[in-house]
Structures are given as C-alpha cells and as structure tokens.
Amino acid sequence: MQDGRPALWTRDFTLVTLASALGAAGGIAGGFALSFFVFDETGSTLASALVIAIQLVPHVLVPLAVSPVMDRLPRKAFLVAGDVVCGAAYAALGLWLLRFSFSYVGYLAASLAIACLEAVDELAWTSIYPEVIPEGAEQRGYAVSSMLYTTLAVVMAPLAAVLLDTVGVPRLLMAQGVLAMAAALIESLVHVREHERAHVDEYTFATWAEDLREAACYLVDERGLRSLLAYQAVSNGLATGYEPVLIAFFRTAPGMTVALYSLFSVAEFVGRTLGSVVQYHVKVPKERRFHLTFFVYQVFDLMDSCLLWLPYPLMLANRCVCGFLGGNSYIMREAATQTYIPERMRSRVNAFQGAVLMAACSSLALVVGALGEVLDYRACVTVCGIASLAASWAVVWRRRADVRAVFEAGE
C-alpha cells in the first residue's frame, strides 16, 4: 500500500508497460508515415480512406472468431505470438516496399493480412491488461496507459515526420517489426493471473457458437454498456474518417505542412498528459464520473467542429484542450467498463464491442472520405463534430441512468 492506496508498479505491470511502450513506439511511427505515404502515392482522400476501411474489416470479424477460444485458453500465448507474427509481417512489408515499386492493390492486400494479426494481438492485450493491474488501482493503471501512448506520440510522430523523408517508409516498417518482436520477448516474462475457466473435452463449433451467444446476450442486456458503445462507434468512426481529410488539408492549404500537422500530437500530448496526471493523483468520486464524462463529450465534439476554422496557434490550443478532456474520459470509461465486464467473458464482450467500433470506423471512414472529395475540408470536419455531438445526446444522455450504473460499479 502507498498512501493508503494499493501499489501499482508491480513486476508484471512494469513489464507489460515496457512491452506496450516498445510496440506503441513502432506503431505510431509506422502508422504516421504510412498515412502520408498513401496520400502522396494516390493524391486521393477516398483512396486513403479505403486503406483505413480495409484495415478495420478484420477487427470486426477476427476477434469474434477468436474470442471464445481466448476466453478458455491462457491469453498470454495469444499476446506473445501476436506480437511475434506482427513483427515479422511488418518487417516483410518493409522489405517488399524497399525492393518493389508501390502497388495500391498489393498494399491493400498486405494491409488486410497485417490487420488480421493485429486484431488478435489487440484483443489479447485488452483482455489481459486489467489482470496485471492490482485491485483498487484501476484508475491509476489506465492513467499510465493513456499517458504512455501520448508521451510516445509526441516523440514518435515528429520523429516519423523527419524519418519519412530521410530513411523512408520501408525502413520505418522494418524498425517497427523489430520493436514488436522485442515487446513479445518482454511479454513472455509476465506472470499474468489466469482465472479458472470452464473446460470441455471437445471444443466443437456448437460450443464456440454458444460461447458467442452468451456474450452477445450479456451485451444486449447491459443497456449502459450498449449506450456507451453506440456513442463511441459514432464518435470514433467519424474521427477515423476525417483523419485523411486533416492530412489532405495540411498537404494542400497554403502555409500548412506535414511538420505543422505533426505538432498536433505535441499539443494533444500536453493535454492528455495533464489529464492523465490528474487521473493518477485524484480519485474521481463514483457519483461524479458520469456527469464529468458527458461534459467532456460535449466540449470535445464542439472543439472538433471548429478545429480547421481557427488560426493555427488556436488549432494547437484546441488539440491541447481536447487532449486533456479526452484523456480524462478515456481513463474513467476504460477503468469502469473493464472492471464491470465479468472476467470469464471479457475477451468475448470486448470482441463484440470492438467489432461494432471497427464496423462503424470502416463504414464512416468511407463516408467521410467521400465527403472530403466534394466538400471543403473544413466543412467536412465540422459536419463530423456536429454529428458526434448529436449522438451523445441521443444515446448517452437518453440512457443516463444505465450509463451511470456502469461508472459507479468500479472502485
């Protein structure tokens, strides 16, 4: 105990955090470089959005197929193997781009294959992470996770902007593969708590289907979880969709550059770091978590709506405020929902939630990408922000009693 609170930095939590740092560092750098790489090669926001949509499709289907087995077997094996295979795949993609000229169709196929591997790895991490956080330290554990990613983003995104034009995308992807394999090595040392689960002598298709049905019924019955999921599907889907629009804006608007766009991550880092520090040191009372989260949704969506209409310095301030608010809401939501979901079906419920989120992101990415072809880029982002704001009132506020119950069930 530290200051009356459970100790957070246990051996396993430290190892998982270190492995996450290595994997995230490579993922941020590679993802940043690839987003500009595709637009530079095609010159189309719709083509860039199609890549995002293709990459998200496996996140809809693969977790649903794998999660019943993951809930019955040790999840650590899925996590370690996922990072090993993902690392090899990224290294292979880098070698391919280094030796051959760019092929849009070939790149789509490679992205689809890698996304299948990442879907398994991400599901395993999401399901294991709550188990390495000591009981009672959930809010601080997710504060560390949030702070870690934003810290790496502020370092890796500007670095990737420089490396994009110096070492090139292929070598960045090869480095990403090495970091993923290093993360797998560290994850293999974790002694994660694996709870006793139901076993069957023969795992059949009928058993698999029944496992999925059980989780689906649970999610249908939990109206609070469903309402949060519905809002996240709309909000995340629209945000995913306008990412290529932001890239196009900074590539084409007078006075805007890739370097200026990369500074968005710096501003968001400052905001999210402050938000994570607050969440790490200040325990938000249960009865205030819902209202604080809903307030964040309102401000965040309004800030998105006006983002590209502001002078550049105010754009940075906008991203800083959104980073602060978004960091707070993410930590409270994840700590609450992952604690609320029963451990024995966490992989399956997370798979269903992930499938809904990815389906929304995939479809809305295409819709927003298409809008970016016909609308002014600034107007396109404004439409997205207003639509997300409307969704918060329609699905979260309308079911506020059920959503509040989820936030008040945690520590």
Feature tags:
82% helix, mainly alpha, 411 residues, 14 helices, Growth Hormone, Chain: A
Can you walk through the features of this model?
With 411 residues, this protein is mainly α. It has one domain (11-188, 214-407): Up-down Bundle (Growth Hormone, Chain: A), CATH 1.20.1250. Helix content is 82%, strand content 0%. It has 14 helices and no strands. The longest helix has 32 residues, at 11-42.
Count of extended strands: 0
Class computed from helices, strands and strand pairing: mainly alpha
Shape: globular
Order of helices and strands: HHHHHHHHHHHHHH
CATH topology: Growth Hormone, Chain: A
Report the sheet with the most strands, covering strand number, pairing sense and barrel closure. Answer: none
Q: Helical residue percent?
A: over 70%
Taking the alpha carbons of the first and last residues, their distance comes to: 15 Å
